[in-house]
TrEMBL record, chain A:
Keyword match 4Fe-4S: no
Membrane topology category: Single-pass membrane protein
PROSITE patterns: EF_HAND_1 (PS00018), PROKAR_LIPOPROTEIN (PS51257)
Record localization: Endoplasmic reticulum membrane
One Gene Ontology CC term in the entry: endoplasmic reticulum membrane
Keywords: Endoplasmic reticulum, Glycoprotein, Membrane, Signal, Transmembrane, Transmembrane helix
Residue ranges of the TM segments: 519-543
InterPro entries named among the record's database cross-references: EF_Hand_1_Ca_BS, Nicalin
Organism: Dendrobium thyrsiflorum
PANTHER family: NICALIN
Protein name, per record: Nicalin
Family to which the UniProt record says this protein belongs: Belongs to the nicastrin family.
Automatic annotation (TrEMBL), chain B:
Keyword presence, Glycoprotein: no
Keyword Cell division set for record: no
One Pfam family, short name: DUF2053
Keywords: Cell membrane, Endoplasmic reticulum, Membrane, Transmembrane, Transmembrane helix
UniProt topology in membrane: Multi-pass membrane protein
Family as reported in the entry's similarity comment: Belongs to the TMEM147 family.
Major localisation: membrane
Residues spanning the membrane: 39-59, 71-92, 104-124, 144-161, 168-190, 202-223
Protein name: BOS complex subunit TMEM147
Cellular component aspect of the GO annotation: endoplasmic reticulum membrane; plasma membrane
InterPro entries: TMEM147
Cellular localisation: Cell membrane; Endoplasmic reticulum membrane
Amino acid sequence: MVGTRSDGAGGELLESIYSVLVLALVLVACVELGDAATAVDVYRLIQYDIAGVPFGSRLAGLNHHAGSSLSTTNADLSRTAVILPVRELNLTLLNEFITRKQPLGGLLLLLPQRTGSRESSEKIHGDSLTRSILVELEKLLIHSYIPYPVYFAFENGKLNSILADVRRSDATGQPASATSGGYKLVVSSWEPKKVSAPTITNIQGWLPGLKEDDDTNQLPTIAIVAFYDTFGAAPALSVGSDSNGSGVVALLEIARLFSRLYSNPKTRGKYNLLFGLTSGGPYNYNGTLKWLRSFDQRLRESIDYAICLNSIGSWNNELWVHVSKPPENAYIKQVFDGLSDIAQDMGVKIGIKHKKINISNPRVAWEHEQFSRVRVTALTLSELSVPPELLESTGGLHDSRNIVDETAVYRSVKLVAESLARHIYGKQGRNIQIFAESSSLAINPSYIALWLDLLSRTPRVAPFLEKTNSFISALKKELSDHTVEVYGTHESIDGIFTFYDSTTATLNIYQVASVTFDLLLLLVLGAYIILLFCFLVITTRGVDDLINMFRRPTSRKSKAA
Amino acid sequence: MTMFHFVNCVILTFGPHAVYYSATPLSEYDTIGTSVKALVVYLVTTLVKLICLATFLKVSETDTFDPYQELMRTLIGFIDIAGIYFALTQLTHRNISQAHKFQAVGLGWAFADSVLYRLAPLWIGARGLEFTWEYIFQGLEANANLVLNLSLAALVSLMWLRKNKPKTVIPIIYACAVILASMPSTVSYLRKALGWQPLKVVGFELTSSLVMAFISWQLYYACQRQV
């Protein structure tokens, strides 16, 4: 009795040990292996719908062998991830490839390293060439439906050497595949999900003017507006230094200058200044529209005029004033004359362009058109001479820090601030400098440079900026340092736009051996083991033993027979 | 296809042990018990070695070659000889001949070494997508190690178990045993201080093990003849 009981206990113990062992083995087998030769940060092409029509890259997961060219005939492109450096990109070929909807496993576009500083003229020439390619590429990718994953990565030594390897093996007519080995590009990513209820945040701040006690009328308001969000082929790379980082920086600097003037009651003007950092700029200035709608009628009527700042960071000698009312209009003429007076003093040219609003057209090309639609006099100051198309010039791939010239922003600030000051203090036509260089009211170039640097590091595609994003808080904080009544309003983006997440990922590049190699290795190893066996048998037991080993079964059979 | 590679590497790493056991008379005399005992002794010896290493050596973060540290390491490596000696003499073996005993002990010793130091890296590394030659080299190293351990076991058995050996051979036996026991340090010296490529290191290991095996065999043969 006792014996059986202890036997049972021992059996249970054994069983539990076995189960623990099995569990351990299963756990070991499930350990995810993350040992790649190279892991690169990659940025996915944007995926979005406009009114249900899909655009951009529709997939995120990638697991294919690497190739180096779209035109290889002997490779199965639908199972190849092609690596193309943007520097040497053949755009017409790519364009044809995409428009013909040819199958492809995936696309990895290598962007040239971003350099923070300005380089020699030769380099700049190369940059401008790459820049024009980038502009075209971005246009193509944004407006196409691409059923495979498209990623961007920055060139680096490792990627370049891998690309060289891939090219070499492609050149020998042995494109990478399961049978020939090579490099494998792997992005493990789940299916992109819709960004639920994307919001845009408009930020505004006031500098209230000096109201005389007996004056019951509301003071007139001048609004300075710039949109701060961006849109580009790679949402995680759309920093938009020029469009519209430059406008944001100029707005902040103007706010800073006037906050100094308005802090002293003696120099406080008889105008309220309203500063608006709007979002949703790329989407027909959707945020501006909603911001304006949130104003009450009295406030809207009190706005004397609004100046919208858009892309003012890379002009040389000519800026444009875009208006929707004819230039002969008295208000427009007054503002434009004020601006062109200063421009003349500064030795820069300023032109005016009139574009009528077509109410039935949903496209809003300039931010001031939203103001004009609610009958507020407004103009846009920009270096762009023609109105951009939808999702164009919104701070995409090419729009990085090195194309923005701080002095251009400086001059823009000077232009706007001086003309505003002359208007506010009624000094039109008089040659005085309020923000003279060595005065205490001088424009601060390092402030401009610092903010440009920050903006050039911060991707700002609105649907991927949460309400509580640190950049938005930083903007709010900065504006509240200079102005009062700063607050942000959260609105939802125009419903026709849908966005999908997973904008960044990690690309693992593995060097894989081919099946053929594994088979060969197995054959060699088998031969080695057999030879070793024969050798050992012969040396320790003699040749006869070896022969006997293979004969024995037959001899037994014969015996049995 | 990575499982395939893993299987290949396992065959290369552990195949020779199995082949050695089954092809030589070891299997006929059923010496598996001796090998298992040697394996256990190996585990204990390794534990002792690890304790010694932890006591006497500093943990070096860098992969550089430090002569003093390596000397200590070599000295600690001689514990191996003691372990093999223990396995050969102190354990009660079934009635098998001297020749088979040292082979069984050497085999168990090498197998334990391979399992302890090579199985886990193989399992983790060779199943990855990334292909490297590392695990194939490691398998070749395991082969060299098998030969080295067999030679070492042979020499140790000569040193202490065979009483009447020719006087002239004795210093050679001791010298060879020292060389064999310090082989891991030599390899690490080549790898770290001279910066040899893995291919070169593995080549060296293979050739040196074969040379040492040949010398040990000659020594063993010489002693055998004496009897």
